[in-house]
Amino acid sequence: MTGLFDPIQIRGVSFKNRIAVSPMSQYRAKGGYANDWHLVHLGRFALGGAGLIFAEATAVEADGRRTHGDLGLWEDGQIELLLPVTKFISKEGSVAGIQLGHAGRKASERRPWHGETPVDEQDIENRKEAPWEAMAPSAIPYAEGWQTPMEMSETQIEKTLQAFKSAARRSTEAGFRVIEIYAAHGFLVHQFLSPITNKRTDKWGGDAQRRCRFAIEVARAVRSEWPEEYPLTFRLSATDWLEGGLEVEDVIDIARALAGEGVDMIDCSTGGIGGRKRPRRMKIAQGFQVPFADRIRQEAGIATMAVGCLWDAKACQVIIGNGNADMIAMARELLDDPNWPLHAAAELGADEGYSMWHSEFGWWLDKRERLIRKLGLR
Fold this sequence. Notes:
By secondary structure, the protein is of the alpha/beta class. It has 13 helices and 13 strands.
């Protein structure tokens, strides 16, 4: 039976285990440029033993940022400061991935600790951070009190597709070996997919096939620049949790279409399209999104990643062992304990005597453990 610590090969990239670090926005970039924070933040997950480590949601256009603190890859100058991050992750035996995205109508937002509300004149006064115009498939605001986005023209759509293509090329040059397209949680690609946010009547909207067109074109644009041997994944919301929105059956069809365009894995999340309040249908529990990963894997015939409220090593082992998903992704649990993969390996019997730890850590910890046992302290 396949386990959490068995390796997996996707295209030409081998992952030492099935544990991925989900993209976690840090809002510490300046002008889209990375800094030492990103090196330390992401580097500690490599020391902690994760197989795949995603950098946070990274904007393909300056106007596609969610906040002023978002990471970006919309210009070549942003490549250089990401190279130390990817080099460190790779040197430590993990795979560096990046999530490319565009905020769409959720752009021009304050950082969470500043209110997670639209940027306005107060931000200019307090932080010298001005608002900018958001754009979307249709002129529908994200929530009450948010700006009405500009409906994207054909020219703007083509420009954004080109931005995804250019960001894919920069991702290669920055040393990443996995790209994930952020097509979930109410961001731009999801906005095109969902009937709640896409009311267009041209070739980019209408029926399910036309609403899927933008996601397909993003996949094509990225694949045209992304090396054949490198995996391409999409993060999808497997349901909108809202009447009239996407249901898992729709997303199975989307996943099939994406697989035909060279997409290798679906990162299966849910929700995020309908404003700030959690939908009534959305009942959060440990592993509540795993059934979506299972259905998409079985019915769309594509590898999946399970994510959301996963923290128990034995439960994650069962998910992989049962074939519900090919990998599991964790975020806040790893913020709390970057060494979770190494602790999980010991719990599951995949590691003894700290052999999976880097020697600089493992030697000391093993020595301490032997002393504690000898003295009967625990």
